[in-house]
Amino acid sequence: MILQSDIQDGAELVTDADSTEKTLSIIELISSGGTAGQIIIAMLFVLLIVAIYIYFERLFAIKAASQIDSNFMNQIKDHVSNGKIDSAQMLCAQVNSPVSRLINKGITRIGKPLEDINTAIENAGRLEIYSLEKNVSVLATISGVAPMIGFLGTVIGMILSIFEIANSGGQIDIKQLSDGLYTAMTTTVAGLIVGIVAYMAYNHLVVKTDKVVYQMEANSLEFLDHLNEPI
């Protein structure tokens, strides 16, 4: 009976040890990756912070640019029809949005040929689009670079593992070998996560920017059509 109980206690201890070894936190996983893995993880973390900052900064800027009074164009057309050019320009200055700046550019060209007005609005529109897309290309770069940095960590980890095998003298140290594998796996996962986040953020901002561009085009055409109407 005593022998059987000792065997059971020993089995429980082995089971507890196995369950403890299988439990691994994210911090332990990163720390087990070695110096090279930690450096690459730190680089990816910085890229993630940059991507998140750019995303929210541009999102708020684009959201503010898209907000415009639905009655804005009606007021502009009334002022222009009544010859109140100064009032129309004042209204554009008060609204202060990409649409209002385009319309204001067209108002300042009233009296010139319609083609000149259209060209001035198009040039101003390019500047507004450039302002809306500020730093968005950085997100696209991060979405492509982050997985590559992660794969670099994978290659470094595999090199470390192969190096340990080559210098083991026939006796492989599992601990040192696992450090290289940890470096390979953790950096790959981290790179893919950062790349996916940056890619999704980039595409979302592109969609939001396109909506503002369409809004600018629609209001510009409405303004030009009003100028082209017979008096």
Largest sheet: none
Average pLDDT across residues?
79
Helix content class: over 70%
**Secondary-structure element string:** HHHHHHHHH
Low-confidence stretches: 13-22
Share of β-strand residues: under 5%
How many strand units?
Answer: 0
Helices, by number, come to 9
Radius of gyration: 31 Å
Assign the structural class, choosing from mainly alpha, mainly beta, alpha/beta, alpha+beta, or little secondary structure.
Answer: mainly alpha
- Span between N and C termini? 111 Å
Instruction: Estimate the global geometry from the Cα principal axes.
Output: rod-shaped
Q: Short summary of the structure?
A:
InterPro entries: ExbB/TolQ_transport (IPR050790), MotA_ExbB_proton_chnl (IPR002898). By secondary structure, this protein is mostly helical.
Explain this structure.
With 231 residues, the chain is mostly helical. The protein has a domain at 49-62 and 70-145 and 190-228. The protein has nine helices and no strands. The protein has helices spanning 2-22, 26-31, 34-66, 72-81, 85-95, 98-107, 114-132, 136-166, 174-228. It is rod-shaped and about 95 Å long. It starts with a helix and ends with a helix. Residues 96-217 form the MotA/TolQ/ExbB proton channel domain.
